[in-house]
Write a structure and sequence with these properties.
Blueprint (H helix, E strand, L loop, with lengths): L8 E8 L2 H12 L5 E2 L4 E5 L2 E7 L10 E5 L3 H10 L3 E8 L5 E6 L5 E6 L3
Length: 119
């Protein structure tokens, strides 16, 4: 182990077929309006966790929810998990404001995500 720990699951993205219908359900569940609300993404910040709704047509093959672990060094963590047998799915990319995200699959095909916020 490299000692590159995680800081816990902070983001969970859910693919949805009808963004408006899903928004109604998640708004009722969480008891709040979304903090991000657009035609391509709806996001809620609740109790230290971000819940995102992604239209299935824009989810690039996303077929189930994906949990994203926060890590201090995304490149180190990806090197660690791929050395352990994971397969890189989506390489590191900046999704805005310096936040880096990437995803990989475990040996059973489960998709897992990691993200790094700017220092």
């Amino acid at each position: 182990m490299s000692g590159s720990s995680t800081q816990g699951i902070k983001i969970v993205l859910h693919p949805v077929s009808d963004l408006e219908a899903a928004k109604a359900v998640y708004t009722a569940l969480l008891g709040m309006e979304p903090q991000a609300d657009s035609s391509y993404y709806v996001g809620y910040d609740s109790e230290g966790q971000h819940i995102g709704l992604v239209p299935a047509s824009g989810a690039e093959g996303m077929t189930s929810p994906v949990a994203y672990w926060q890590v201090p060094d995304i490149e180190a963590k990806l090197a660690e998990v791929t050395a352990a047998g994971a397969t890189l799915k989506d390489p590191v990319r900046d999704v805005g404001n310096g936040r880096l995200v990437a995803s990989f699959t475990d040996r059973d095909g489960n998709v897992l995500g990691v993200f790094q916020d700017p220092s």
